[in-house]
Design a protein that fits this description.
heterodimer; A: alpha/beta; Pectate Lyase C-like; 12-stranded mixed β-sheet; 2 helices; 12 strands; 11% helix; 25% strand; B: alpha/beta; TIM Barrel; two-stranded antiparallel ribbon; 33% helix
Chain lengths: 236, 469
């Protein structure tokens, strides 16, 4: 089902074939040092899961759930839209979504860059533990929920309850947030921090020095129960 | 009008009626300790103390260990009825009885199912809740007897991976330190959607236990009171779960089984849904299951007892044609081989022990008594896992306390305890005429109470009929 395209490129067709077979072919091509283009993706789930650092994969069309999930360094491009959990648990690498991303994009990711050109659905960057998520559009409600670390950057603003219950990490907004979540507060960013974010964006062709940034961080009131005295836990 | 009765002696004084002679001043003499005992069934001394504590703290109480609910029916409500005239027993002291246990044997989906030598393994308990020494000792002990352990929610600890020849890697909703390499190093993956101690609520690890190493593994600030999410970040219902399970298979090359751990609440439905969603092994954790820390009300008042959950789960698997394909593991409050054998007879393929394994490590052992005293408790009734001040080094991150747990000795105790439990199971199985522990069946049991019979469908002792409505 695959045919050579350019010299070092190979095409894999997803269509209605078992995903296991498609991914096996994809992994074999990657192991072979080939760049892979997956055609006729039909929003299939679990495409390109757990790919290694050397992988270069482009999905032509839209993909379903968990595309690029558990990414371990691969560079993945999705031409159109992605379903839930794109790039979930990514450790390193880069995933670019040309269109929109569904719920929980970059959920619990630990590193790498997830770049979404359109809007992202609710709970974008939920439980993220590192890396950067860049959303050119708007992020949905509860985005950044209980994130631990990393940066979630949204050029188009955020829906309700933005950055709810953060442990750590930062949500950067260049547009309005419908509301902030529990225990979130807006902090004036340092010039160096802004420069670092702008440099990251400029590197992706999104440079614009006129942006009015708001950085949302944890208020840290939820870090502890009301009673901070360890002895209080002995009352029981 | 009738004349009032008159004693044939002088009317008594009020002092005499009140038995004041020699009585405690200000007390009704007839019930000298009624106040101390707390005679009200509703306002027990504990209920009163709970109100006082809540009124002072302004929050719910939180502790470790397991349920204190005394009305929880348990394994002791069932007995075995060994072979007598209708069946032939095996020689308990001589004949052999198979104990090998295979979990997640699904050709085409799992190329390396788990093969354990015994039907018992050590439950998912995190590094964080437990010390690194405790995790290592459990791993070595389980390895010695061909059993296995499970990482729990804190990520994969090097010490445990090294110690456990067979290790289940748990993915909880918080996904601490979820790592592809670790997934691929695991012998099975467990998606946790709940636990028996507090179904419907996420894990708790108080700041005293969030040490630097724990914090690093969980990407948390050191010392925060960690309260984890209960909903997974990237799937919600069973349809999504099905896709998630496929993702994990893709990531691990269809090599290892995928477990799904749940607290026992509505097992008849939950187990059927989990099986349909594609889990290879379903771990059903009853309300007696222990935990490192939890709001106390959840321990005492949520979930259903293990003994009541297993039968419903097995029937659910039977009803959807999944028995034999999907394995069922029971856990929650299993203290001995006897309890484990009852679980197998009720329909479990294997059992998981948590608290019992900690006891084998030395939990609640009578050592370092002053430290128990400082916690306001004593050996035998300590439930202070949540404080991180475990006097015997099991549930602590304090180096000087952890050092009290000698890994080799503790590992050997775990190995011996698992061996003894297995001997108990085979002893009962052979008395019931079974050459494999997996042949134990509901017919081998009788219920001692109407409740136990009604919950489990096990026949009542003597009358030989299940209680029905």
């Amino acid at each position: 089902m695959s045919r050579p395209a350019a010299a070092n490129r190979i095409e894999v067709v997803a269509a209605d074939r078992p995903v296991r077979e498609v991914n096996e072919e994809l992994r074999a091509a990657v192991a072979d040092g080939r760049e892979v283009v997956v055609r006729d993706t039909r929003s299939r789930h679990n495409l390109g899961v757990g790919l290694p650092a050397a992988a270069r994969v482009r999905f032509e069309g839209s993909v379903g759930y968990y595309c690029g999930g558990l990414n371990d360094g691969a560079r993945i491009e999705i031409e159109r839209n992605a379903g839930w959990g794109v790039g979930e648990a990514m450790a390193e690498g880069e995933i670019v979504v040309g269109g929109y991303a569904g719920m929980a994009a970059g959920a619990s990711m630990r590193g790498g860059v997830l770049h979404i050109r359109g809007d992202a659905g609710p709970r974008c960057g939920v439980a993220m533990k590192g890396g950067d998520i860049i959303v050119e559009g708007r992020i949905g409600y509860l985005s950044g929920f209980m994130a631990h670390a990393g940066r979630l950057i949204a050029l188009g603003g955020a829906g309700e309850a933005c950055a709810d219950s953060l442990w750590g990490g930062e949500v950067w907004l260049a547009g309005p947030a419908e509301s902030l979540g529990v225990d979130a507060r807006i902090e004036e960013p340092e010039a160096e921090e802004v420069a670092a974010v702008e440099a990251l964006l400029a590197g992706r062709g999104l440079g614009d020095s006129t942006r009015d940034w708001r950085k949302v961080v944890s208020e840290q009131r939820l870090w502890h129960f009301e009673s901070r005295d360890a002895k209080a836990w002995l009352m029981i | 009008m009738k004349e009032p009765y008159e004693y044939p002696f002088d009317p008594p004084s009020e002092d005499s009626v009140a038995m004041r002679d020699g009585a405690v001043e200000g007390r009704v003499a007839g019930s000298p300790d009624a106040y101390d005992a707390g005679e009200s069934a509703r306002w027990s001394p504990k209920a009163i103390a709970d109100v006082h504590a809540m009124a002072q703290l302004g929050r719910y109480q939180l502790r470790g260990y397991n349920t204190f609910n005394r009305r929880m029916p348990g394994f002791d409500d069932l007995v075995f009825v060994p072979a007598t005239m209708t069946r032939l027993p095996l020689e308990g002291y001589r004949e052999s009885c198979e104990t090998g246990t295979v979990l997640g044997d699904r050709p085409g989906l799992v190329s390396e199912p788990l093969r354990l030598d015994i039907p018992i393994y050590v439950a998912s308990m995190s590094f964080g809740a437990l010390s690194a020494n405790a995790k290592a000792a459990l791993g070595y002990g389980a390895s010695k007897v061909g059993s296995m352990t499970c990482t729990g929610e804190g990520g994969m600890l090097e010490d445990e991976r090294e110690a456990s020849t067979t290790l289940v890697y748990q993915m909880t909703p918080s996904r601490y330190m979820l790592d592809l390499e670790h997934l691929r190093m695991a012998d099975a993956i467990e998606l946790a959607v709940g636990q028996g101690a507090k179904p419907g609520t996420g894990g708790v690890l108080l700041g005293m236990k969030v040490s630097e190493r724990v914090a690093r593994m969980r990407s948390l600030p050191v010392g925060v009171d960690q309260r984890s999410t209960v909903r997974h970040p990237d799937f919600l219902g069973a349809d999504d779960l099905q896709v998630k399970i496929e993702e994990l298979r893709e990531a691990t090359g269809y090599r290892v089984p995928v477990f799904l751990k749940m607290g026992a609440t509505r097992p008849r439905y939950d187990v059927a849904i989990a099986a349909k969603a594609g889990a290879d092994v379903i771990v059903l954790d009853g309300a007696e299951g222990g935990t490192g820390a939890s709001p106390e009300i959840l321990l005492d008042h949520t979930g259903i007892p293990t003994v009541s959950a297993i039968r419903a789960a097995r029937e659910a698997l039977d009803e959807c044609g999944m028995s034999g394909e999907v394995s069922l593991v029971a856990s929650g409050g299993i203290r001995s081989g006897t309890d484990a054998a009852k679980c197998l007879a009720l329909g479990a393929d294997a059992v998981m022990i948590g608290t019992a394994a900690l006891m084998a490590l030395g939990c609640n052992a009578p050592r370092h008594l002053k430290d128990y005293e400082a916690l306001g408790t004593s050996p035998g009734r300590c439930h202070h896992c949540h404080t991180g001040l475990c006097p015997v080094g099991v549930t602590t991150q304090e180096p000087h306390l952890e050092a009290r747990l000698d890994v080799p000795g503790a590992a050997e105790r775990v190995a011996r305890f698992l061996t003894a439990m297995t001997m108990e199971i085979t002893l009962l199985a052979k008395a019931c005429g079974k050459s494999s522990v997996h042949n134990l069946e509901v017919e081998d049991l009788r219920a001692l109470s109407l409740e136990a019979s009604a919950f489990t469908g096990v026949r009542l002792a003597g009358i030989d009929r299940p209680f029905t409505w």
